[in-house]
Every structure is written in C-alpha cells, then in structure tokens.
Amino acid sequence: MQTNAKKLSFLLLVLVISVSAFISGCSSSDTSGDSSTSEGSQDEQLSGELNLFIWSEYMPDSVIKKFEEEYGIRVNYNTYSSNEEMLAKISGGAAGYDLSVASDYMVEIMLKQDLLEPIDKDNIANLKNIDEQFLDQSFDPGNEHSVPYMWGNVVIAVNKDAVNQDVNSYEDLWDPDFERSLVVLDDQRVLIGIANKLQGESMNATDPAVIEKSKDILLDLLPNIKAYDSDSPKTMLINGEATAGIVWGAEAHLAKRENPAIEAVLPEEGTNIWMDNFVIPVGAPNKQAAEAFIDFILRPEISAEISKDFPYANPNKAAHELIDEEILNDPAVYSPPEFIEKSEYFTDIGDAILEYDRVWSEIKQH
After folding, report:
1. Domain containing 279 — which CATH number?
2. Using the 8-state DSSP alphabet, how is residue 252 labeled?
3. What global pTM score does this model have?
4. Known binder of ligand: residue 105?
5. CA nearest 351: which of 178, 112, 150?
6. What is the C-alpha separation between 134 and 121, in angstroms, rounded?
7. CA distances from residue 345 to 183, 229, 352 in whole angstroms, order as listed
8. In terms of residue numbers, what domain contains 326?
9. Membrane-spanning regions, if any (predicted)?
10. Cα 343 from chain centre
11. What are the φ and ψ backbone dihedral angles of 54, each rounded to 5 degrees?
C-alpha cells in the first residue's frame, strides 16, 4: 500500500507540473500575440541620439518633441541652406549624421557617389501612406535609398500694395522699377535654371554657351536684388524690405497669411518643381532610429501637423484629410497640372555643375 501510495503521489506531482507548464505556455503565447507589447519591445531596442541634417524651417519643434517623448531618443537638429551645402558636408567626411533630406537630383548624385545607406522598408510601415505617383522615381527606382517627404515649386511673390505693374513672368522682375527690392533664393540651380529658361532652354541645360549667357542675364538682375535668402524669404516680404521675390511656394503662402497684399504668381514660362526625400548617409551611427523617425513622420496626423506649420505640398495622401482646405486649394502650394507640365524637375547635370559653380561664384562676387 505504501508503494502504491508513493506511485500515486508521484503521478499527481507529474500531473500538476504538466498542467502548470501548459497554463504558462498559453499565457506566454497570449502575451506575444499582443501587438502593443510587441511594439513596445521594438521601441525598447531604440536608444541613443538621432542627428538630423535638414533644411531650416522644415521640421516643427513640436514634432521633434513628440518623437523624443515617445521613443526616448534625443534629436539633434542641424540645418543647411542648399542641397549643395549638404552634399559638400556629407561628401567631405562630416561624420555623425543619421538622417538628412535631399532633393530629387541630389539623391541621384549621392547615389552615384555611394553616400547613402539602403533603407529597410520593413521598418517603415507607414510608407503605404505615400501617394503612389511620388514613389519609384527615376532618381531612386524602388525607393531603395530614399523616402518622399515634401514636394513643391518656386514662384514669384508680389506685394500688390507696393507694386503697380502686372507681374506674370520671371522676366518682369528685370524691370528697373524693382531696383533693390527683390529677395531671391540663394540657390544656384534655381537662379541659373530660371535664366536658362528665359533663353528658351532647359533649366538643366549643360551647354557652356547657354550657362555663360545665363550669367550675363543674372548680372543684369543684380541691381534689383536686395538679398539672397533660401531659409526664410517670406520675412523680407512681410516686413516690407522687399516688394517682390523668387521664393518657395510655401513661403509665399506663409507671407500671405501675415500680409494679404502678398500674392503668389505662377510664372507663365513654368518653373522648377522639386521633391524632397529622407535619406540616410552612409555610416549613419543610428540607422535604426533614423528609420523609426521616418516612419513616425509618415503617420497621417504627424505629417499633417508638419504641413500646418510649413505648408509645402505633402505626398502623404493619408494626411490630406487632416490638412486645411486653405492649403490644399492654394496653387502656390499644390501646382495645377497644366503648370507642372511646363515646369521641370532638376536632374544630375554631371560635370556641367562645375560651370554652374563658376558662374554662381562670379555672380555672387559682384
């Protein structure tokens, strides 16, 4: 009887252990299937700092703060004034940048120079929110190294209270009545491209004779230029230091918010249409945080928040329901199709960029 009792006690102990193991296994299975817990575990893997290199007035502080609070990652925000400045720093060996923004043609250039990391799109689920027309562009087929951020144009802004003549074309800004009253973008591709276009040539012209002629055209404009400013050209328009200018479409929109007399003009000859993209510089110390930041920015509510502060045209289709109609319906921001058709994206112009550099330097020295 004692032997049978011992056997029974042993069997009961085995049964208890087996049932406990089964319950524990079910509990573990249920926990692993909880999406919030899974996401939380992924978030816990992110740490350190994110070094962001971007245009000025292009990322609201409120958005950066939300990312920092949610992910526990400090964002260091550094700015540049042109694609060329950004390229010079990154190609020159400036280390430590995790994430930057490059325009269409600059993505192409950086790829040719092996300056970009491939992007793990598995970490960017919100890429699905981008309108398909902005994906798979010729400068980065398959978006292997870039993710669309914003797009837009270059327009003329005019203070109608201070300017009497009609302005319909870039050519109108050469009128002597604009002496010392223009603010223009500090961007060689834009200004030389406009001068190319006034010759009936492409904004991407590579013929040295065309580029040299563009230099002469821009030298003729110098008496009318009060300042070069790519960061915040709206400021001089709002405070009255400039009566007109060549500016980003979003800057014209923001200027009109402050002063209704400022109107945007879509130049009759067309303009530059651009698309800015997130890119990860080669050797980025915190690539995982960079991809998490991109995914965060592509959330509809976050993307719409950016558009509210900096109303560039937004390729995030899912965010449009949250963006003010005033922005969506402004042709200075969202260019109509017929205007886009006669406008141009910049492309990589190869060695001709050396001519652009020379011409721009000679213009700025005057």
Report:
1. 3.40.190.10
2. H
3. 0.86
4. yes
5. 112
6. 16
7. 22, 21, 17
8. 46-150+275-335
9. none
10. 19
11. -155, 165
